[in-house]
Design goal:
The structure holds two protein chains of two kinds.
Chain A (H helix, E strand, L loop, with lengths): L17 E5 L1 H11 L8 E3 L3 H6 L6 E8 L3 E10 L7
Parallel strand pairs in A: 2-4
Antiparallel strand pairs in A: 1-3, 3-4
Chain B lengths: L1 H17 L5 H18 L3 H18 L7 H13 L7 E4 L4 E4 L1 H9 L9 E4 L9 H11 L2 E2 L4 E7 L4 E6 L1 H7 L3 H11 L2 E5 L6 E6 L9 H9 L2 E3 L6 E7 L2 E7 L3 H6 L9 E2 L2 H8 L1 H18 L6 H11 L20 H6 L3 H11 L8 H7 L16 H16 L1
Antiparallel strand pairs in B: 1-2, 3-11, 3-12, 4-9, 5-6, 6-8, 7-8, 10-11
Classes of the chains: A alpha+beta, B alpha+beta.
């Protein structure tokens, strides 16, 4: 018989890039460097499966390290928000 | 022999200087190529610095300028090729055919962020130990494929004199789907309709002796569907599976989509399982995975039609669609409908409705963006129009006040 599947961890899925929570001090520096308020970053819902998996809370900034076909590696940020526009 | 070594060291110094200006990938490539060139062709220091200079300059020139209307360029770059797409195609592939929506309908589907695609397809990759073994792959495929009693039944009848439902099973289908008669009996038992037994004359005939309450002729149709629609095995929503050979491994293509359940199945490589249902990906793998899936799907759809669109346009579109942390469509209910400016919203579909709505809500429009300013006839904040002159009143005040203060004293 086929052996059982090991524990499923969505963070290891092919489609999911590396996520990490930016520490608050670093986040302040980052926002200063970009010259923006946190809400001007792209958002990420607190109910997002990845946000839950890495334990991100509303108000956190998450660093996303994507593999990009044009830039090789691209670092993006998302601001974790409370669910406002509930659609589904 | 000392000369080339010196050049290499000096090149490293030069490279360090420009490291901050280039992307890591570009920097890596440049330093590797340069070092290779030094070894092979023994280029001089002067030549090397010229090369670096030229590359940095070209890199800066290829960057997008501030104020460039990237959104408009994206819209045009995606809009124009889409006019050349096939309007309605159904494509059959593989040995046993399966349908995939392609071309313009598929593109519209992605951009509209429909809840589920017209033809959901899953690509199920398998783990190392099973992916080369056709028998094991078949076993998994059977396990995934949804089978109802209906699919394996040849004849269904209800005998009123005996008060029994007689289900004659299809021998070939049983073998094909890998279901045993015992399994069917077990499923029927779970329905708790009455006593289940296999006929003594025919091993493929199963009888369900129904209890009184079910024999009401009014309810008989309901009972029939209840029995026929009972799930014998399989994953919900997966209608059909096809085994394809890709390179040296077997991949299961499934019609229908259920990412959550399929990932749990033993033997499935859950790290690579893919579905074309973007909302499902968002729900299970998160918004970043959805972004990646949108890019992949649009790119595939365009490539399939032989259209060459730069991936950066698609990436911008995907970024916009996933901006709020949820996949939203490009149309009225999504990006275009959530613009901050009243006039910009009114320009796009249902003008009167949008104006009335914002009038009722008492909205203001600070005319920050392009569409509004075109309506008004002002200069639009794009390109050189983006530049403004700012005045710092506090500094001017100080300078004005100072001399006056001195005079009054």
């Amino acid at each position: 018989m086929i052996r059982m599947n090991e524990e499923i961890n969505i963070l290891e899925h092919e489609l999911v890039p590396k996520h990490e929570i930016v520490p608050p001090e670093e986040a302040i520096q980052l926002l200063k460097k970009l010259g923006i308020e946190p809400w001007q970053l792209p958002w990420m819902s607190m109910d997002d499966p990845v946000a839950k998996a890495i334990g991100a809370k509303p108000g956190d900034i998450v660093r996303i390290i994507r593999k990009s076909p044009t830039a090789g590696v691209f670092v993006a940020y998302r601001y974790v928000v409370v669910e406002v526009t509930k659609k589904s | 022999m000392n000369a080339p070594r010196n050049v290499e060291e000096e090149i490293n110094l030069l490279l360090e200087k420009v490291k901050q200006e280039l992307t890591p990938q570009l920097f890596e490539e440049l330093s590797n190529k340069l070092k290779e060139a030094v070894k092979k062709h023994r280029i001089t220091m002067e030549q090397a610095s010229k090369v670096i200079e030229e590359i940095v300059r070209n890199y800066h020139r290829s960057l997008i300028d501030p104020g460039e209307a990237v959104g408009t360029i994206t819209a045009q770059s995606l809009g124009e090729p889409s006019t050349q797409m096939t309007l309605r195609v159904f494509h059959y592939a593989g040995v046993r055919e399966y349908n995939v929506t392609l071309g313009l309908p598929r593109l519209i589907e992605i951009v509209d962020a429909r809840k589920s695609p017209e033809t959901p397809i899953m690509e199920i990759y398998l783990t190392e130990d099973v992916k080369h073994d056709l028998e094991k792959v078949k076993e998994i495929a059977r396990h995934i494929e949804l089978t109802y009693i209906e699919n394996i039944t040849e004849e269904f009848a209800i005998d009123y004199t005996e008060g029994a439902a007689i289900i004659k099973l299809d021998r070939e289908m049983l073998a094909d789907k890998g279901v045993t008669v015992e399994k069917v009996v077990e499923v029927l038992n779970e329905l708790e309709l009455g006593e289940v037994s296999v006929s003594p004359e025919d091993p493929y005939e199963v009888r369900v002796y129904l209890s009184e309450e079910y024999l009401d002729p009014v309810k008989i149709e309901k009972l029939r569907t209840k029995i026929l629609q009972a799930r014998v095995k399989g994953v919900r929503n997966i209608k059909k599976t096809i085994i394809q050979k890709r390179g040296d491994e077997y991949v299961i293509i499934a019609e229908g989509s259920n990412l959550e359940e399929v990932m749990k199945i033993p033997g499935v490589n859950w790290r690579k399982v893919y579905t074309n249902n973007i909302h499902e990906i968002e729900r299970i793998l998160g918004i970043e995975a959805a972004r990646a899936a949108i890019i992949k799907e649009i790119k595939n759809t365009l490539d399939d039609q032989g259209l060459d669109v730069d991936i950066r346009h698609i990436m911008l579109l995907a970024d916009m669609m996933t901006w709020t942390g949820h996949v939203r469509q490009v149309g009225r209910m999504g990006i275009a409908g959530e613009k901050p400016s009243v006039l910009a919203r009114a320009t796009f579909e249902t003008t009167v409705q949008k104006l009335v709505e914002s009038a009722v809500m008492g909205e203001e429009d600070a005319l920050p963006s392009i569409t509004e300013n075109i309506i008004i006839g002002q200069m639009i904040p794009v390109g050189t129009g983006l530049v403004r002159v700012y005045m710092n009143p506090s500094i001017i005040k100080k300078e004005e006040v100072k001399p006056q203060g001195e005079e009054s004293e």
